């Protein structure tokens, strides 16, 4: 990881390595089982899986940006936003990411990119309308710490592995693959079951990592700017405003919650086990402790 002035987080690094190891092990076993069940069709499975993985890794930032409606803006189009990003880049000693705006009333922000030189930070028009300059800077520092810590790339790969089971299952079942009629019957029973187990385990692992990385980004962003109270204010304001956003807009945003600064939830809050973000209380409590530490002589 390229050095920046964002506070390093060994806990986050260890969790990312552990999560990727466990997911990789899980999918090696999964693909191995598919090869045994699908017989002569295994080369096709390996080729397709490899091709999809490469495409996901190299084009994930563009796919995510397009899916979330991000539009890159120039300094002339958004001078205040670019000014805030420029200040944070100088403070963090890191390359400037692309800057984008998504035209939606959902107040949020996200970062994409597999490296610091291939990254983008995006805020929504709803966020720009609601936050003060210091609050916006706190949110941007949070998002840029994701890029500095490279957890955006890890979450992208983890997300790919999460849908791999479904992809292989569809190919196997639609293609009617197998070495014999009996083998096909066994595959039809086992493939959906194995895929479901793999998907659930992947989902829980990525959610666990997602919650920790949000706390790590809050901590790194607050320490970089030296204003944890501004980030806390932004969090409180955004969470309070979510209830006023049209349900249709929230539902469109929900699939991308793992990438957002704050979760867009259209119904009742999810349980801690399934949530992509830690609770607001937990995030504010951490920022309060950081504020107290920074205030000590």
Automatic annotation (TrEMBL):
Pfam families, A to Z: Peptidase_M48
Subcellular location: Cell membrane
Species per Swiss-Prot/TrEMBL record: Streptomyces xiamenensis
Major subcellular location class: membrane
Claim: Cell membrane is one of the keywords in the record: yes
Protein name as annotated: Protease HtpX homolog
Chain's gene name: htpX
EC number: 3.4.24.-
Active site as annotated: 143
Signal peptide: none
Transmembrane segments annotated in the record for this chain: 12-35, 41-59, 152-174, 186-205
Similarity remark: Belongs to the peptidase M48B family.
